[in-house]
Amino acid sequence: MNIGEAAEATGVTAKMIRHYEEIGLIRAAGRTGAGYRVYGAKDLSTLSFIRRARDLGFSIAQIRDLLALWQDRERASGDVKRIASAHVAEMKEKMRLLQEMVQTLEHLSAHCHGDDRPDCPILEQLAAGKAEEKCC
User: What is the secondary structure of 60-124 as a DSSP string?
Assistant: First the structure.
């Protein structure tokens, strides 16, 4: 299967397949006599694995670790769970920070008249450089 077919089959773009190969996340593809990349079933499984992991927000470093564990038949499932649990904790922290940003912006927007006057608490807060504090 060529790179375009592999991309279509796995949902990973050809550009990302080349990138994953460059950074060593996947092994270098075999080549035809004309130099075209050739992918087999194992390559497609690995690319699909990466795609699913990216869809769940895992970082490249985490995916590298997960791939190593996936390929190690002697692995302990606890090692996999630790990576997933750490990722869940990271995502929850990001969600908390996003919620704080939403609350701050809602507060600022509620205090902005949104009319023809030049006074704007949103711009004032941005200029003050105190994003973590609510104003007005």
Answer: HHHHHHHHHHHH-TT--HHHHHHHHHHHHHHHHHHHHHHHHHHHHHHHHHHT---SSSS--HHHH
